[in-house]
Amino acid sequence: KWKASFEATRSGSPNALLELEVMANEWREDFKRATKDENNIYEDILQEKVDELSRNSPDKAETFVSIVRDKSRSTTEFVEEWLSTSDNQPKTIDMKRSDVLRFSETFPYTHHVTKKAVQKWTHKLLYADNLNPSTVRRVVSACRGYWSFLERSGYIHTENDPFHDAVERTKRKSKASRTKDRQPFTAQEVVYLFNAARANGDPDLADLIWLGMWTGCRREELCALKIADVSDDRMQITDAKSSAGIRSVPIHSQLRDTIKRLISESTDDFVISGQKPNKYGERSDAIGKRFGRLKEKLGYSETHVFHSIRKTVATMLENAGVPESVAADIIGHEKKTMTYGVYSGGTSF
Questions:
Q1: How far apart, in whole angstroms, are the C-alpha atoms of residue 283 and residue 276?
Q2: Which end of the chain, C or N, has fewer beta carbons within 10 A?
């Protein structure tokens, strides 16, 4: 009951419905323990209660009897139990929790979840809430994973997958949507950004851009780079987005002096020193926002982000005639072919 009261305060929903859910859960347990003789009496009492509720709210009556007969549960009842079984990173776990809570706003109880209703909901996310199709697919994936957990754990009993074909198949991108894709900077624009960061009195951001333009590394890979992972001719990326991202990156001749200076000036174990981690342990959050403000001030849109520098480096490697398998090992991309992607141990340093 305390949980119901807290939930009512948090969500602003009527406490009466939550108290009804608590009562329904208690009745469900009583029905499970009831003897054959008691069951007949309980059925009569249940019918009286359902009739009483139906006079004011047929939906409440349906919810009450569904819970009592163990055909429905509160959608959020087992979210934390489900998340405790996940080996995802904290940020991904928080995202999954958020996705399921979004789902529960439309489907507070599991008996509300039908294939048609889910399709209608995803259509609303796409066209009323204007969410990106990839975001909707991520949300649906999290909800489907939670639903599967409920089924495997015996908390719900269904035969059909309400999430099958829940999201419309990906359509060919329109000209308008293609213009919103992330674009690479030109080499000259990256230098322009570097000089602007220095002129703006932000040496840490200037150093981050300089490291990015000579390595193609991700923002967080550079901010997480420890002094111990740097040798004379290479840096070892150990904190990467994927297994392909764990790699050795050559230290370009243009980068050596900067690396030496950063290591000598460091006040902690990191090459880019003094960056405070966020709640997920990511050190690049604040400096990434500063990059965002800088590039917007210089007139760049949402199609250009720090990640665009990776695209610049990839573009320059291609134009320099570097074999794609070598470029993939430097940038940290998975190689899709069987021979190089599965059998090969990677390009020699």
A1: 6
A2: C
- Extended beta strands in 118-194, E state: none
Residue/partner pairs of 141-145 with CB below 8 Å, 24 or more apart: 142/95, 142/96, 142/99, 142/100, 143/99, 143/100, 143/103, 145/82, 145/96
Residue 175: the pLDDT is 47
User: Under 8 Å CB-to-CB from 249, ≥6 apart: which residues?
Assistant: 215, 216, 217, 234, 235, 236, 237, 330, 332
Phi-psi region of 201 (alpha: psi -120 to 50; beta: other; left: phi over 0): left
Find, among 18, 337, 188, the residue nearest to 196 by Cα.
188
* Structure-block tokens of residue 34: 């009831």
Are the C-beta atoms of 251 and 259 separated by less than 8 Å?
Answer: yes
pTM of the model: 0.72
Nearest-angstrom CA–CA distance, 249 and 216? 9
Closest CA relative to residue 52, chosen from 23, 14, 13: 23
> How many CA atoms, within 13 angstroms, populate the side-chain half-sphere of residue 66?
20
- The DSSP line for 244-293 is GG-EEEE--TTTHHHHHHHHHH-SSSBSSTTPPP-TTS-SSHHHHHHHHH
